[in-house]
Amino acid sequence: MGDFKEGEKIHGFIRNQKLDSNVQVCNAVIDMYANCGFVDKACGVFDNMGCMKCLVTWNTMIMAFARDGDGHKALKLFEQMEKDGVQPDAVTYLAVLCACNHAGLVEDALRLFHTIGKHGVKPNVKHYGSLVDLLGRAESLKEAYNLINSMSMVPDLVSWQSLLGACRIYKDVEMAEIASRNLVEMGSNNCRDFVLLSNVYAAHERWNDVGRVRDSMKNRDVKKVPGFSYIEADGLMHKFFTCDKSNARWKETYLKLDEIRFKIKELGYVAETSFVLHDIGGGGEPTVLS
Question: Contact at 8 Å (CB) between 208 and 280?
């Protein structure tokens, strides 16, 4: 999380001192604005650099568009980079694949993935993982699974977790069990993996299997990590956990949350509960959500 106001002050100092003729300084400024969520300002620095762009400059700007979910601009910049004779590297391809992922551009991502070797870049596990995640989000679960199995290296936990996450979205029990089994074999003890599998079962009302997953969590001493959020107020960063009462103004906070919750419900908001962990009572039915 970036501090935009402080970053803007530093950028002003850089301009006043004429330090923006240094490509490394410009790269840092572009990255700062992107991290703060001001991609338009990052793009302005990129377009008006008083020095020659290097590979890092292009990569930083492409990743800025990726974080902003603007896959089309990232692809356009990648194409411009090639036209300008700049040779992309592994980081470039990862950035543009991430951009395609965030924008749901499956065909573009597949095309790029198959051209990596043209520039002498060997795809690594992160390239594969980004494409697995994209295919999973696009409901191409079988293709995502086949891609994992085609890796020239040992798949990492993230690839299987991405597939499992997609199975939760599309309620694919068979593929979820395959992904979960591979995660267990790799030694994963992440509570999210168990929750995802549990919720795939719950979507099909397979409460015995939900209970079995819950028992497995207990046997492995896996605890569900409470969610938390950050908020900046008056220059200070505050961290809030679920049901947190550690802040001195927690009562005011929850009153405001109740007010917001009431307003968004009036607008038709329905809470997303697919990531909660179902608790199983004696009758085999879900009793509470935690």
Answer: no
Residue 289: strand, helix, or coil = strand
Distance CA 116, CA 101 (A): 16
pLDDT tens digit sequence for 144-190: 999 999 998 999 999 999 999 999 999 999 999 999 999 999 999 89
Look at 20 and 41; give whichever has higher pLDDT: 41
Backbone angles phi, psi at 237, to 5 degrees: -95, 130
Residue 163 lies in a domain: no
Domains of the chain: total: 1
Residue 105 contacts residue 71 (beta carbons within 8 Å): yes
- Per-residue tokens: 227: 């969610």
CATH number at residue 53: 1.25.40.10
Is residue 177 in some structural domain? no
Give the count of beta carbons closer than 10 Å to the beta carbon of residue 34.
24
- The span from the CA of 212 to the CA of 177, in Å, is 13
Characterize the bridge pairing of strands 278-280 and 286-289: antiparallel
Please enumerate in sequence order all residues whose Cβ is within 8 A of that of 58, keeping only pairs 6 or more positions apart, or say none: 77, 81, 86, 88, 92
Task: Say if CB 144 and CB 163 are below 8 A apart.
Answer: yes
Residue 58 falls inside a structural domain: yes
As given in the structure block, the two tokens for residue 58 are 């292009």
Residue 129: inside a domain: no
88 burial (CB, 10 Å; 0-12 / 13-18 / 19+) is: buried
Per-residue pLDDT, averaged over 240-250, amounts to 79
Whole-angstrom distance, CA of residue 279 vs CA of residue 290: 7
